[in-house]
Amino acid sequence: MSLVSDNKPGGNGDSSFSDDVWEQFARDTERDIRNSAPKEPSARARMVTERLRQQDERGDRPESWRVGPSVHETKRRSARRRRLWAVIGVPLAVVVAVVAMKPSLLPGDPFGTSSDDAPAASRLPDETAPPTAAPSASSGTPTLDRPFAGSPAERWADGADGIVVPRATAVGPLTEAQVATALRRTKTLLVEANLDRATLRGERPEAAIATLDPKQPKMLDDVNGWLRSPGKGHDPLALFTRFDPEEIRLVGDVVKTRGRITFKAGERASVVIHADYSFVYPVTRADNNSTEVTRTIVRRVLDLEVSDPTKYRVTPGKLSVRRYDRDLANSACDVHDGFLHPRFDSADPGGPDPSGPTVDPYDRSRGIQHSEPGACGTLSRT
């Protein structure tokens, strides 16, 4: 079919083109029209198209054949995203709400909400030699939440962690293992006599007594007498820390400790162990409604000995007590009932006015000082 008119350009039927040129123009025009006209796909093309459509519906068409995700794949991805947000979004929303109400649950202080009066206190290194001066002053008032505020002990170790046993070596006829046993028993005595909760409540300190040598003349008799009938000159506070549970309640679970243990060869085929430790006890009144906190500081110096059992009549591994001394700070000095009696700022101190020298109970650079009989010393801080 030709869409070319039989009339040739040129007005009155006259042609300005030759017949050959006109025929070539007609052929070219007819070819271009055929090429641009829509063509019906071949039978093979129709088969391939139908097969791909069916594979899309089944979801098994190779991914590489698609330019983008199929409708089914898009739906599956959307469903997965909704499920993921359901699992993560709800708990995340709960966490955000809780933190908004209580930012202190976050570690550190990301919002800068910490109070300036509660700085974090880094622990002091263990004491390995006698201090040369008293610790510097600290600011703060003890509370139920911060019972060591305002005390150098805030940077001391907690409880038994502060009682560090040195590495054992052989001493004289005693082997390294024997010395190690003696050092471990020394720590046990300190812990059970000054940190054990039952002992602090005034109960009998059986575990502490078990470290002592029953063959040491009079020692166990004296200890049993102190516990059975406390009094002036025979007070169990000489070796054990005790509070009357009807009067005093410990604040929190921590007693602060600081000191050192050393050892050397003794004169009786023995090892002599020297222990010098301070213990700081935060307390309040036994009344559960009490919020006032004070502290009692107890310093103990012990010289203990373990002799060669092949040369002396001793119990292997048990401790003989050669010296026991103590300094009790912030406790009524005129009461001898076997308990410590801390004083509180809000209470009438009663008893005699302080008449002894002023001492710093945290000053471990000095030796234990004893006041004159009947005198009550003055504390520079507690």
* Overall shape: elongated
The chain-level mean pLDDT equals 82
Biggest sheet: strands, sense, closure?
A: 6 strands, antiparallel
Order of helices and strands: HHHEHHHHEEEEEEE
What is the rounded Rg? 46 Å
Output the structural class: alpha+beta
Distance between the termini: 119 Å
- Measured as a percent range, the helix fraction is 25-40%
User: How many extended strands?
Assistant: 8
Determine the strand fraction and express it as a percent band: 15-25%
Total of helices = 7
List the uncertain runs.
1-15, 111-118
Structure keywords:
alpha+beta; 8 strands; disordered N terminus; transmembrane; membrane
Describe this structure as you would to a colleague.
The protein has 382 residues and is of the alpha+beta class. It has a domain at 152-379. It is 27% helix and 15% strand. It contains 7 helices and 8 strands; from the N terminus they run αααβααααβββββββ. A hairpin with a 4-residue loop joins strand 3 and strand 4. The protein is elongated. Mean pLDDT is 82; it is low at 1-15 and 111-118.
Summarize the entry for a quick read.
Residues 1-78, 107-155, 343-382 are annotated as: Disordered. This protein is of the alpha+beta class and 382 residues long.
Strand and helix map with partners:
Layout: H1 19-36, H2 43-58, H3 71-101, E1 157-158, H4 176-194, H5 197-200, H6 206-209, H7 219-228, E2 248-250, E3 256-265, E4 270-285, E5 294-307, E6 320-329, E7 358-359, E8 378-379
Parallel strand pairs: 7-8
Antiparallel strand pairs: 1-3, 2-4, 3-4, 4-5, 5-6
